Amino acid sequence: PQSDLLGLIQVMIVVFGDEPPVFSRPTISASYPPYQATGPPNSPSRDGTISEDTIRASLISAVSDKLRWRMKEEMDRAQAELNALKRTEEDLKKGHQKLEEMVTRLDQEVAEVNKNIELLKKKDEELSSALEKMENQSENNDIDEVIIPTAPLYKQILNLYAEENAIEDTIFYLGEALRRGVIDLDVFLKHVRLLSRKQFQLRALMQKARKTAGLSDLY
């Protein structure tokens, strides 16, 4: 009916006003019209106008193309959103895994710290007990007896070290005496040569003794 066709045309004008369908008149050959075996009902009328069936078919085709285009557009948008959601989900999973690893590592570090604290407490108790014993023993001990090594080799090293430092102090005071004019240069040089030779011998003996005792080099 003509009323339905006019209604369809009005709807198409509103919906597809931004992309209206374009039609062109079919070229009518005056001498050799196209052969139509089935005689379709939507052929142009004799006066050259387009029939309602042709317009209807064209509008339906335009609507189908528009719907397919909009459907493809919506599907592409939905697929893009889905891909973004998948990437977000993967990022969240990775972040969750990293967070679990950090928590596990933190628990291990806390356990290690607690273990070290207990160990330090134990060592502190042992040290306090040892200091208390030393304080009790020092009241009755002579200071010289405390610092004298019991092994002969360590006693020798201590004596050599003390003698070498005494020579170092003597050379220093000779220099002060020379500076103040108490002794002259010849006396200073004579004594410094003797003391330096003695100091060299002491250092050599001390190095040998330290090496025998398994100690590091002092010079």
Automatic annotation (TrEMBL):
Gene3D superfamilies per the UniProt record, alphabetical: 6.10.140.820, 6.10.250.370
Assigned keywords, A-Z: Coiled coil, Endosome, Protein transport, Transport
Major localization class: other
InterPro entries noted in UniProt: ESCRT-I_UEV_domain, ESCRT_assembly_dom, SB_dom, UEV_N
Domain UEV stretches: 1-26
GO terms classed as biological process: endosome to lysosome transport; protein transport
One GO location term (cellular component): ESCRT I complex
Record-annotated SB domain positions: 151-219
CDD domains named in the record: UEV_TSG101-like
Coiled-coil intervals: 68-140
GO molecular function terms attached to this record: ubiquitin binding
UniProt-recorded name of the protein: Tumor susceptibility 101
Record gene name: LOC101970059
